[in-house]
Amino acid sequence: MADTNKIQYGFKNVYYSIITEADNEITFGTPKPWKGARSLTLSAEGETSNYYADDMVYFSTSSNAGYTGTLTMAKMTDDVLKDIYGYVETSDGMLAEDANVLPKNFALLCEFQGDINATKHIWYKCTPGRPGTDANTKEDNITPDEVSIDLTMVAVEDTSGHAWTKAKCPSTSAKYANFFTAAPVLPTVSA
Predict the structure, then answer these.
(1) Which tens digits make up the pLDDT trace of 161-182?
(2) SS3 readout for the chain
(3) Phi/psi at 10 (nearest 5 deg)?
(4) pLDDT given at position 190
(5) In this structure, are residues 47 and 63 in contact, taking their beta carbons and an 8 Å threshold?
(6) Tell me, what's the pLDDT at 61?
(7) How far apart are CA 186 and CA 143, in angstroms?
(8) How confident is the model at residue 1, as a pLDDT?
């Protein structure tokens, strides 16, 4: 199951899977495509703590608080506005935002190219910030506007005590072929 790529480049095939949480259990919906992937920039969150004894660092540890970052897409699709942000279709055919509706958490799935094979990735629980709006006048050259969304990605605890934040799926994985079509599940550790 090794990733044999020497380099990573490219970003495509963004999908989202809406999360349902009930009775301390999480389930994922079937992934839906989100076309127009531009970039994903994430920073690891957590702190390193040192304990000093005998005039030196006696013990050092770091915490994993997930990731924060920005997903940049060509545009917000109507499906994303409805599924994640709770926009509703009105009786007169408009798509309206209700300020009383909170965005839904979702799993983010995507693909990074490599020199040999693409590697697919999933972050299990993403909390999105609200997207802004950017519109610019057309000039000599048409430059498309983009939408950036702030994301916070945190761990999801399973019943065996693991807290899963993300996973990567190399081309040798049994899940590779249906990665974007089957509802995600939390990992199980091989014996």
Answers:
(1) 899 999 999 988 999 999 999 9
(2) CCCCCCCEEEEEEEEEEEEEEECCEEEECCCEECCCEEEEEEEECCCEEEEEECCEEEEEEECCCCEEEEEEECCCCHHHHHHCCCCEECCCCCEECCCCCCCCCEEEEEEEEECCCCEEEEEEEEEECCCCCCCCCCCCCCCCCCEEEEEEECCEECCCCCEECEEEECCCCCCCCCCCCCCCCCCCCCC
(3) 75, 155
(4) 80
(5) yes
(6) 85
(7) 40
(8) 52
Nearest CA to 131 out of 165, 86, 100 is that of 86
Whole-number Å distance between alpha carbons of 155 and 169: 18
**Below-70 pLDDT ranges, the chain:** 1-3, 191
> Which pTM does this prediction carry?
0.88
> At which residue do the structure tokens 């972050």 appear?
123
- 55: how many CB neighbours lie within 10 A of its CB? 6
Token pair of 179, please?
Answer: 């990665």
Question: Longest Cα pair distance anywhere in the chain, in angstroms?
Answer: 73
d(CA 19, CA 126): 9
Residues 126, 176: contact at Cβ < 8 Å?
A: no
- pLDDT at position 191: 67
CA terminus-to-terminus distance, the chain: 15
- Asked whether the CA dihedral 115, 5, 183, 108 is positive or negative, the reply is negative
